[in-house]
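Need Nitrite reductase's 3D structure for a figure. Predict it.
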Amino acid sequence: MYRITPCTALLLVSALALGLTGLMSASTFAADEQASRSCIKCHKRNGKLEGVHASPGLAILCQDCHGPKGTHPKKGSTLNTFGPDSPLTAEQRTEICLTCHDHQALGEVEWTHNVHANRLGCDQCHKLHPETDPMLSLNTQQHSQLCVGCHKVKQ
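Structure prediction for Nitrite reductase:
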């Protein structure tokens, strides 16, 4: 029998939310999809485009999260970037994620989403383009240890 874990539920809720919020006209989608293909040519070759956020089945386009290509890959690029070197604030990065992911549903699956939403970017715990997000495979003890990494336990 298959057991639905909180992480699996989160993925299911996210996929459903993407399906309901990602509606757009076919011609707009086709043009945007072509722009995403130009991103994929380099990034897939460089090994930096895997995982659920790169799944063609979900119809997530690069520009949905990263914004328009602009001058990328040249200097002065205005792409939205994620991770520790991002010029965006945690709140800005989280806001990008919340265009598809439902804040309330995330909080119901994992209470820490509500606690951290205004302080941490989603990318500080979740990895967006590896084959699998390591956060989704943590057991309870590993999850607690991750928390201790930021929240020092007083003895």
